[in-house]
Amino acid sequence: MKKKDRHGPKKTSGITILPLSLPLLQLLRELKYPIRRTLSQRCRPQHRCRLVPTFSIMIDAKSCSRLDSSKDNGVLNVDEEGDEELVSLELFALQRMDKKKVAVPLVCHGHSRPVVDLFYSPITPDGFFLISASKDSSPMLRNGETGDWIGTFEGHKGAVWSCCLDTNALRAASGSADFTAKIWDALTGDELHCFEHKHIVRACAFSEDTNLLLTGGFEKILRIFDLNRPDAPPREVDNSPGSIRTVAWLHSDQTILSSCTDMGGVRLWDVRSGKIVQTLETKSPVTSAEVGQDGRYIITADGSSVKFWDANHFGLVKSYNMPCTVESASLEPKLGNKFIAGGEDMWIRLFDFHTGDEIGCNKGHHGPVHCVRFAPGGESYASGSEDGTIRIWQTGPAPQEEVDAFSAYGSTGKVKVMADEVAGKIEGFHITKEGKAEEKDEATDA
């Protein structure tokens, strides 16, 4: 049974009572609106209900105007009940009116255990997609732009450690603690193939031509499965020196890379010979290894550093120390001028690629960040955490502008909106008797 949205406005004796988000609360306090504080019961799935403070404002039609957050041009939207025109203020509309593109997180719930891997598909005619791996054993597919849930792949019997999509986002792959790697139909969710292993599968990756699947894990063996002949035995690459943590393809599927959970370095293997041709030395085990979208760099996270390697000559190009131990890093794919990193301190930090300077920082997760990935167009990036949520952040041209953006359960990002600017925007509109929004004519008002 559907329940009425508790966050909608309530009508009491001609007065509108509006529940407030925390950023709007701060904003209206600066505007000196009277705020009232009450306690209400809030419940989360699989958690006990608890009393939390709720802030609201009591207004009438003369004291406030409603800005519809779905309209980029800030057009007013009027609700009518009886003789009163009920209106409310939306923070995000003001942000759009101010033409400030800021990093506001989309919070994606659904996983019941930590999110340990994320993967974006390339841009397809249907858009782009995001798949997530979690210890809850159920990979999830989402719209990469909006974060909307599309479907859940059900069939694994253990934690899923790795996931990926093929070039056309028609098939998905996942590696699990149930000793299997599975291929899924990304349109129907059906399981297409199941590849048995003798130990936990920690990593998987589609080849660029989508005909091969590379897997690795606790067996210390890299396997290449031919998806055109799924019943054929896989090709086994020479034994890895340690348990495999990450795998990836590069050089048009002629080279594969892998890192280990118990030793430093990234090893590059020639696919034809099955031998190691180069080792990228690191002091700590590499927890994340990504090949840049343009194929120029290999991006690694190890210990408290992020490194960029030349993908053709394998030389170290840049190395930056991070404020904490990092688990994942990703390079912006469009311009290549910034990168993100996330780790133990629960923050997602944005850095300048050329200087290593921190240019932005987003907090919202309630546990260590296990994975971060840029969207294929560079307009946003996603983070997965121990708290079981995925957050999608807009990159924005001005990452140091701050706006408090709260999810339904109180998670935050940062955006800055000045009270006088907001007041100016409100005064710039009025509501006609027909319920239509118009901009005030400054000459007439004068």
TrEMBL record:
Tell me the ranges holding the WD repeats.
153-194, 362-394
For the keyword Repeat, the answer is yes
Biological process according to GO: spliceosomal snRNP assembly
Quote the cellular component terms of the Gene Ontology held in the record.
Answer: SMN complex
The residues forming a coiled coil are none
Cite the entry's keywords alphabetically: mRNA processing, mRNA splicing, Repeat, WD repeat
Keyword Repeat on this protein?
A: yes
| GO terms of molecular function | RNA binding
Q: Which InterPro entries match?
A: WD40/YVTN_repeat-like_dom_sf, WD40_repeat_dom_sf, WD40_rpt
* SUPFAM superfamilies the UniProt entry points to: WD40 repeat-like
Q: Which family does it belong to?
A: Belongs to the WD repeat STRAP family.
Name the UniProt record assigns to this protein: Serine-threonine kinase receptor-associated protein
Q: Which organism is it from?
A: Protea cynaroides
